[in-house]
Design a protein that fits this description.
Elements: E1 2-3, H1 6-20, E2 30-33, E3 36-37, E4 64-65, E5 84-87, E6 91-96, E7 98-99, E8 106-113, E9 120-121, E10 136-138, E11 149-154, E12 162-172, E13 181-182, E14 186-191, E15 199-202, E16 205-206, E17 211-216, E18 225-226, E19 228-233, E20 238-241, E21 244-247, E22 251-258, E23 276-283, E24 285-286, E25 289-292, E26 297-302, E27 307-316, E28 319-321, E29 327-330, E30 340-350, E31 353-368, E32 372-376, E33 380-382, H2 389-392, E34 393-400, E35 403-404, E36 409-412, E37 418-420, E38 426-429, E39 436-446, E40 449-460, E41 468-469, E42 473-477, E43 488-494, E44 502-503, E45 511-515, E46 523-530, E47 536-538, E48 542-544, E49 546-547, E50 551-555, E51 561-562, H3 578-583, H4 597-600, E52 602-604, E53 608-614, E54 622-628, E55 632-633, E56 636-637, E57 647-653, E58 659-665, E59 671-677, E60 685-695, E61 711-717
Parallel strand pairs: 5-14, 16-23, 25-31, 33-40, 41-49
Antiparallel strand pairs: 1-3, 2-19, 3-18, 4-7, 6-11, 8-9, 8-12, 10-11, 12-13, 12-14, 15-17, 17-21, 19-22, 20-21, 22-23, 24-26, 26-29, 27-28, 27-30, 30-31, 32-34, 34-35, 34-38, 36-39, 37-38, 39-40, 42-45, 43-44, 43-46, 46-47, 46-48, 50-53, 51-52, 52-60, 53-60, 54-59, 54-61, 55-56, 57-58, 57-60
Protein name: BIG2 domain-containing protein
């Protein structure tokens, strides 16, 4: 086996690489695979030529060749001279000597074999010139010197590297002409005139963790010819193991295949050629990022000089990230994102030409714990004035270097959303129904150095539902869970003004949608949210109002009037006497704000409310008229069938807090109490609390018993305003 001379080739390769301009610093060149040529055996007849080639005879004896065929000398036995490597058209002179002990002239014959071509056999004769072939010419046609046998072999035209074979044989012409003594077989490797080595590095661009393979493209070399492989890599880029490179950092790598020996062998005056070819591949890098929770993390694609990334697609923990830049920033990272995988898929171009598509680079996001770690018992609170305290209040706490922290000062960025006790960390959501995210910050100062951390708390609130008509749909929406967190939802309803709640079977999402029915009027809804930590936070209730179409009088009161004194309860009130009615003691001459009202009016035993709904639009108006029939006790009137002696006083506060009054006689004459008013645009209703009083005037015909009157309430539609 002919081994590659590593030192000589190494000098040659270093020279070539220097000319190629590899980015410095460069690791020393080394032969990952040492090249070699193992020529065919000179003692073995080539396959396919058995009919004409003879198995070589022994050398050194009488009537035997004294040395193998070689190109060094007729007496040389060195193996390096027993084969040649040539390019088509080049030649080599093979030599040998024969120890002839016969009495006549020896006869010469030559044989030539090129796989794929007809086998050639010369004629025979007493001189070397008798054995002539087109590719094997004797150097002295007339020579009979059997001690100086020389033939010039010319490499034939070939399309791929090919071993060709030559043999000389001699016999005693005066004796047995069929008893040839064959020489050893001389093999010659012939290369095409356009022979080149090719090398491919695949993939052309990788990132750390991937491998690159160097492959020889010229697959026509015989198996017994192994080119050498030499490699380089910029420091830190990775390492080669024979023809495989494992990338560890950004850089440039090269692999060079070289033919085993300079060609031709022997030189014979021709300039030697070393066939070699190199390939280049590139390693990019995306560095891992380690940041504290709440900070931004920036990832950047780094490529060797001259390369650009195009069509970049980023992902974070498997989710696509918007953007086509070589940098990607993760804002305000969360502890839950620790060890998240970041990938960038890109096309890489050199000189404007894409050399590798869909190259994938990866990195990891690592979250380091800050010295001060802040958390809240519940990341969700609800605001409003009808929220359970445990759903409106939570507590912030902190650890310092892994132990419970003391001396922490607490603050919030938006006190309109929530307030926090600076010492205890108790956080309370606002009572006004305002929503948003409030940042709760804990700050600790140790030896003059302050450290702080903030955590978000969601402040939610269910808004008031707009009034609906039966058959309309409505949707309630709860606050969504923050990214990376998992909350579960359970919607509930109450038909008992919040005294008891029932879970809704189909209400387990962040939103709840249903169709309003007339029976749902005044039903309350809320949501119970279970956070990732297991906290159950219940929202404020919201009330569903289902209004019938048009203008409707929903509720009017019944009145029972008695005598009252300041501070008396309804149970302590007494009936007026007949004398009181006859004398007109309760004549209604005092104002409702006058302390003497108790002595001048009869008072109702229970609150009174009138309720109106109007679905005609937010600007529609209506009027309310009240009529009072004459009071009767059985068939007897209090003061005649025409009435008019009793007065019903209805009192209420207007939107400005001013007291309003309407007085209605018991004469069946309607009195307009409200004129061109509108319902509440939010609820589509008007609920009017009344303070009723009753005056009887003098009733000489009054009798013992209970007097009754019918109150007639009438709403009249005004302009709809649509």
């Amino acid at each position: 086996m002919k081994q590659l001379h590593i030192k000589t080739l190494g000098i040659w390769l270093l020279l070539v690489l220097g000319l190629a301009g590899i980015i410095a610093p460069v690791l020393p060149v080394h032969a990952d695979i040492a090249g070699s040529i193992t020529p065919p055996s000179i003692q073995t007849v080539p396959a396919g030529s058995e009919e004409n080639f003879l198995k070589p005879a022994a050398t050194g004896g009488a009537n035997q060749f004294t040395s193998p065929l070689n190109w060094m000398a007729t007496t040389s036995t060195l193996p390096d001279g027993q084969y040649a490597v040539k390019v088509s058209g080049q030649s080599v002179t093979v030599k040998a000597a024969f120890n002839y002990q016969g009495t006549g002239d020896p006869y010469y014959q030559t044989v030539w074999y090129q796989p794929g071509a007809p086998l050639q056999m010369s004629g025979t004769g007493p001189v070397q010139g008798s054995a002539v072939l087109s590719n094997a010419m004797p150097l002295d046609f007339g020579s009979t010197d059997y001690k100086n046998i020389q033939y010039k072999l010319t490499a034939p035209d070939v399309t791929k590297p090919t071993w060709v074979y030559f043999q000389v044989r001699i016999h005693d012409g005066a004796g047995n002409p069929q008893a040839y003594t064959p020489s050893t077989i001389f093999p010659m490797l012939v290369l095409p005139t356009n022979f080149q080595l090719g090398v491919t590095l695949s993939p052309r661009v990788v990132f750390p963790g991937s491998t690159i393979t160097a492959q020889l493209n010229n697959g026509n070399l015989p198996a017994n010819v192994v080119p050498s492989l030499s490699t380089t890599a910029t420091n830190g880029a990775g390492s080669w193991s024979q023809n495989t490179f494992t990338a560890t950092g950004a850089g440039v790598v090269q692999a060079m295949y070289a033919f085993s020996l300079p060609v031709p062998i022997p030189v014979n005056g021709a300039s030697p050629t070393t066939y070699l070819q190199s390939g280049t591949a590139y390693i990019g890098q995306i560095d891992d990022q380690t940041v504290e929770a709440g900070s931004d993390a920036a990832f950047k694609i780094v490529l060797p000089s001259g390369l650009t990334a195009q069509n970049i697609r980023w992902t974070l923990a498997g989710a696509s990230v918007t953007g086509n830049s070589t940098t990607m920033t993760v804002p305000k990272v969360k502890a839950s994102q620790d060890k998240a995988l970041v990938t960038a898929t890109m096309d890489v171009a050199k000189g404007g030409t894409v050399i590798q598509q869909n190259v994938v680079g990866t990195a990891h996001l690592y979250i380091k714990q800050p010295p001060l770690a802040v958390k809240v018992a519940s990341p969700l609170l609800f605001s409003g004035d009808k929220v359970d305290s445990d759903s409106q209040v939570t507590t912030a706490s902190a650890t310092y270097q892994g132990a419970p922290a003391t001396g922490v000062t607490w603050s919030v960025d938006d006190p309109s959303l929530a307030t926090v006790n600076a010492t205890t960390g108790v956080l309370t959501a606002n009572p006004n129904g305002k929503t948003g995210t409030v940042m709760v910050t804990g700050k600790k100062t140790t030896d003059g150095t302050a450290v702080s951390q903030s955590v978000p708390v969601t402040i939610g609130h269910l808004p008031d539902l707009q009034p609906l008509a039966a058959g309309d749909s409505f949707t309630l929406t709860a606050p969504p869970a923050p990214a990376g967190s998992n909350w579960t939802y359970q919607w509930q309803q109450s038909t008992t003004s919040g005294n008891a709640w029932q879970n809704l079977a189909n209400g387990t999402g962040a939103a709840y949608t249903a169709t309003a029915q007339a029976a749902d009027d005044q039903t309350q809804y809320r949501v119970a949210v279970t956070t990732a930590a297991g906290n159950v936070v219940k929202s404020n209730p919201t009330t569903l109002t289902v209004n019938a179409a048009g203008l409707n009088l929903l509720q009017v009161p019944d009145f029972t009037f008695k005598v009252a004194q300041p501070g008396q309860t309804a149970a302590q009130m007494s009936d007026p006497t007949v004398a009181d009615l006859i004398t007109g003691k309760y004549s209604g001459t005092a104002s409702i704000t006058d302390p003497a009202v108790f002595n001048k009016w009869l008072l109702a035993t229970a609150p009174a409310t009138v309720m109106v709904s109007d679905s005609r639009g937010p600007n529609a108006t209506f009027s309310l008229a009240v009529a009072l029939a004459p009071f009767k006790n059985g068939s007897s009137y209090l003061n005649g069938a025409a009435g008019g002696s009793a007065t019903l006083s209805l009192n209420w506060a207007n939107a400005q807090g001013q007291m309003q009054e309407a007085q209605i006689k018991d004469d069946n004459v309607p009195v307009t109490a409200l004129d061109q008013v509108s319902v509440n645009p939010t609820t589509g209703r008007m609920s009017l609390p009344l303070e009723p009083l009753l005056a009887t005037g003098k009733a000489p015909q009054a009798k013992a018993g209970q007097y009754h009157s019918a109150v007639t309430w009438t709403v009249t539609a005004g302009p709809s305003g649509d």
